[in-house]
Write a structure and sequence with these properties.
The complex is a heterodimer of chains A (118) and B (245). Chain A is built from 3 helices and 2 strands, in the order αββαα. Chain A has 118 residues and is an alpha+beta fold. Chain B has 245 residues and is of the alpha+beta class. Chain B contains 8 helices and 7 strands. A 7-stranded antiparallel beta sheet of chain B has the order 2-1-3-5-6-4-7, with helices on both faces. Classes of the chains: A alpha+beta (118), B alpha+beta (245). Chains A and B meet through helix 2 and helix 3 of A and strand 1, strand 2, helix 4 and helix 5 of B. Chain A: It comes from Balaenoptera musculus (Blue whale). Chain A: Keywords: Initiation factor, Protein biosynthesis, Protein synthesis inhibitor, Translation regulation. Chain A: Pfam families: eIF_4EBP.
């Protein structure tokens, strides 16, 4: 059988253990396509159907996306929660403050604890 | 912003015959109206992932509540104490909110962040919660920010693997301790609650001696005293609905 012989001639390859995909800022992911990502590793099928599963590492990487640098347009101003205490509207400086890394933030009894291992 | 507008326009098929400028303006007005309406009805215009964003399995809404010191519980307490911060549909939209909110460890006073699936109110009497319960973990001061982040990332990323069971998560900042909890729909479903517990242990990387307590919402109402600080949240949330002064 020719089909059988062609099958046996197919070279075997190891399954790659990891696959790293670097996404640049300009990359276009398929919007609304729930089954495909460039990495191919984000979605998983469960007995309940296909669900969108992300691990912590991937979610943390998305934090660096440029769109996350600006607050949502309809973010309510809540002093001490979404804006600095004192009720100033969120300015550019305020945004930097809130989104800055922990060590940049003032008033810091608890700051270092964010990164502390339990 | 542009991403959001583009996405919204897709839903408003009736506007497509207008030119770009008018259409945008009209959408803006409509959105404002919808937002005003949402103050009373709780309904919002559909939030969708922007182009090139990573969709989440569910949309989620951030809420914030704070007990006003010294103010007796009144019929206005519910509105005064809990505020919707906003709803997101993608990983990127989540980070836009999260990056512009303080972390729970930096909150002052008697405050809570709630992150619930869109359409589920962080109240026990919501249809999704009324037969449910929650895992409660009490944390010593200083751990809340990190644990909360790990908890909500696991929830958004569908790490719990319990189908539709998860309703939302809460972090409660109190004077002596902080409390994180995750709410599910069916308190009597032991396979689900056990799986949630095991996932919590995995994603929070808790010390072995950490006490985890499961509480049904009906027990929380019957025996509010045992719940300590959480009792105040429940009182504030449900008293106004019962018209208790």
């Amino acid at each position: 059988m020719s089909s059988g012989s062609s099958c046996s001639q197919t070279p075997s390859r190891a399954i790659p253990a990891t696959r790293r995909v670097v996404l640049g800022d300009g990359v276009h992911l398929p919007p609304g396509d729930y089954s495909t990502t460039p990495g191919g590793t984000l979605f998983s099928t469960t007995p309940g159907g296909t669900r969108i599963i992300y691990d912590r590492k991937f979610l943390m990487e998305c934090r660096n996306s440029p769109v996350t640098k600006t607050p949502p347009r309809d973010l309510p101003t809540i002093p001490g929660v979404t804006s600095p205490v004192g009720g100033e509207p969120p300015t550019e400086a305020g945004q930097d403050h809130l989104s800055s890394s922990p060590e940049d933030k003032p008033a810091g009894g608890e700051e270092s604890q964010f990164e502390m291992d339990i | 912003m542009n991403n959001k507008f583009d996405a919204l326009k897709d839903d408003d098929s009736g506007d497509h015959d207008q030119n770009e400028e008018n259409s945008t303006q009209k959408d803006g007005e409509k959105e404002k109206t919808e937002r005003d309406k949402s103050q009373s009805s709780g309904k919002r215009k559909a939030v969708v992932p922007g182009p090139a964003e990573h969709p989440l399995q569910y949309n989620y809404t951030f809420w914030y509540s704070r007990r006003t010191p010294g103010r007796p519980t009144s019929s206005q307490s519910y509105e005064q104490n809990i505020k919707q911060i906003g709803t997101f549909a993608s990983v990127e939209q989540f980070w836009r909110f999260y990056s512009h909110m303080v972390r729970p460890g930096d909150l002052t006073g008697h405050s809570d962040f709630h992150l619930f699936k869109e359409g589920i109110k962080p109240m026990w009497e919501d249809d999704a919660n009324k037969n449910g319960g929650k895992w409660i973990i009490r944390l010593r001061k200083g751990l809340a920010s990190r644990c909360w982040e790990n908890l909500i990332l696991a929830m958004l990323g569908e790490q719990f693997m319990v189908g539709e069971e998860i309703c939302g998560a809460v972090v409660s900042v109190r004077f002596q301790e902080d409390i994180i909890s995750i709410w599910n729909k069916t308190a009597s479903d032991q396979a689900t609650t056990a799986r949630i517990r095991d996932t919590l242990r995995r994603v929070l990387n808790l010390p072995p001696n950490t006490i985890m307590e499961y509480k049904t919402h009906t027990d929380s109402i019957k025996m509010p005293g045992r719940l300590g600080p959480q009792r105040l949240l429940f009182q504030n949330l449900w008293k106004p609905r019962l018209n208790v002064p």
